[in-house]
Design a protein that fits this description.
Two copies of one chain form a homodimer. The first copy, chain A, is mainly alpha-helical and 322 residues long. Chain A is built from 16 helices and two strands. The two termini of chain A are 28 Å apart.
């Protein structure tokens, strides 16, 4: 058993942010300490470990990825006017929007500083190049998400493209950059990327599903949050595609207003989704992306034994009932 | 005569920003097209040209620097709630703050994309490393500036450090990175940096001076703008240091409120500054940084002939009466 999480946390905790003025770095340490699964850095360590026995050279890359992820959370939370992140105040609420903008900026720069600490100096340029592409796509995904809030006619392929950009390219990119750092063959680097990208999409569809049909204890938050926020999730978009005129009209009406009776609204929307068989279709869509992901992992040309950690992690992401 | 400006503009204009969603890139092209002197890219081209006959390989670096500079303007304008930039609406006013945040983010990433296009591949890592340091310091300068707004006791050395971080390190950094790209000796790279850094500080002191004591036609904006905004410029901070109790109290009173009679306020503050001999002291401080700058330029080990463009440019920055 390898202790990827513990190794990453030890590395991160011994490198807190500091500098002058101190006010700039307080919110950075705050958001970095809020926790989370550290999924992207762990994937980077596991990806590197496919090819190299000692995966500690991947720690600066892992840290850069986690800093970038948290930068995007700080800025997205301003844009989404989100009061809470991991049950704690968001940076722009605890401090203010100006500091949240500037702290985010310095985090993005710090991510590049850690990329330059990658030991394999001759591989830094291709890694930074991949990082640039992924970082730009994450911004494009956020813009797409903001655009969708103003649109009524979002298609499923558009939705998939949005979640792909907003979250999955970074999951795929973490593995891709780890492969680049380890000196993996181009074909394997590509497989790592598409493994992560497909895992990311499957995970987001599952997330949409659990938000409406999960058990509260297992999901760790109130069921039906997306429905109450009128979010255009995979479930809602698919339902709008499938519904006959009368049902579609009712669903649109429900999703266009704030309900006086939240529990009743959640029940009615879920009833419509089930009437249209959407949960089963979502499971099938998720399973397809999962399958595509595992095919990529299987094709990577290293002994199966080496892939155990990634296989277990990826399976654990989908082991919840939904 | 070399056409640095025209060459840079031709390069920039043939590389407009594009991508999906288009909404994300519109404000980027808007701010990049607002104009300006293109000081940082021109300095980078001139710095490279000290060492190499053909300076076109420095164009991607020059563009990266101008993109970074404009990124910082977009985010700073949100933080400063500035309605206008170069007499046009700022991005967050013309669109909204969310788009200004995200457009700025993508610009910062795009700056790194252009850094990776530098032809001298083996020099990219040291250049990106210098860029990271400068970019971080620019954020720190903005934080210092925001801190100063809430403080009464800012000293001249603190003020100099703030303008150094907020603007001069990028001027110095542009020349430093150009030297790195051209493969200059370490000592010359350092001289280039300190030449630019000192020029930047001298220019900012001159800017403070012109805002209060320049001619409107020459400054291109209303005289006394800083005074009406109660900005703690070099002039005001030096005056507060020098003034006896009674005058200091009067100056603080004037700087703590919005006047009903702007012209009268400007006149009285200027009278206090002149009474304390502050304009002469500012000229002397400016001259000292100018001198330090030109000493660095002289020490660079290339024929004097090669330094002509940088000398003429630097002198032209200070040729206005003030």
């Amino acid at each position: 058993m390898h202790h990827y999480f513990e190794k990453f946390e030890a590395y991160r905790q011994s490198r807190p942010f500091s500098g002058n003025p101190a006010e700039l770095y307080e919110p950075v340490n705050y958001i970095m300490e809020l926790g989370g699964k550290r999924m992207r850095p762990i994937l980077a360590l596991m990806g590197y470990h496919l090819f190299e026995e000692d995966y500690s050279p991947a720690l600066p890359l892992a840290y850069a990825l986690e800093i970038f992820h948290n930068f995007s959370l700080v800025h997205d939370d301003i844009m989404d006017a989100a009061p809470l992140r991991r049950n704690q105040q968001t940076v722009h609420i605890k401090w203010n929007s100006n500091l949240a903008i500037l702290a985010g900026d310095v985090m993005l720069i710090k991510a590049y500083e850690y990329l330059l600490q990658i030991a394999e100096k001759e591989r830094i340029v291709p890694i930074v190049s991949a990082f640039n592409r992924v970082a730009r796509e994450v911004c494009e995904g956020q813009q797409m998400d903001m655009n969708f809030e103003l649109r009524k006619d979002v298609s499923i392929p558009e939705y998939i493209r949005m979640i792909e950009l907003k979250t999955s390219v970074l999951v795929g990119g973490a593995l891709e950059m780890a492969g680049l750092a380890a000196g993996a063959a181009d074909a394997d680097v590509q497989r790592l990327y598409h493994f992560g990208r497909n895992i990311g999409i499957a995970f987001q569809i599952q997330d949409d599903l659990l938000d409406a049909f999960g058990e509260k204890a297992e999901v760790g938050k109130q069921i039906g949050g997306d429905i109450l926020q009128n979010k255009k999730t995979w479930l809602i978009l698919r339902a709008l595609e499938l519904a006959e005129e009368r049902v579609r009209y009712r669903l649109e009406t429900l999703m266009n207003r704030t309900s006086d009776d939240p529990a009743q609204k959640i029940e009615e929307v879920k009833a419509i989704l089930e009437y249209l068989n959407v949960p089963v279709l979502a499971e099938a869509a998720k399973a397809e992306y999962q399958k595509a992901a595992f095919e990529q992992l299987e094709a990577i040309e290293v002994p199966t034994e080496r892939k155990k950690a990634l296989t277990i992690l990826a399976e654990s992401l989908f082991s919840r009932k939904s």
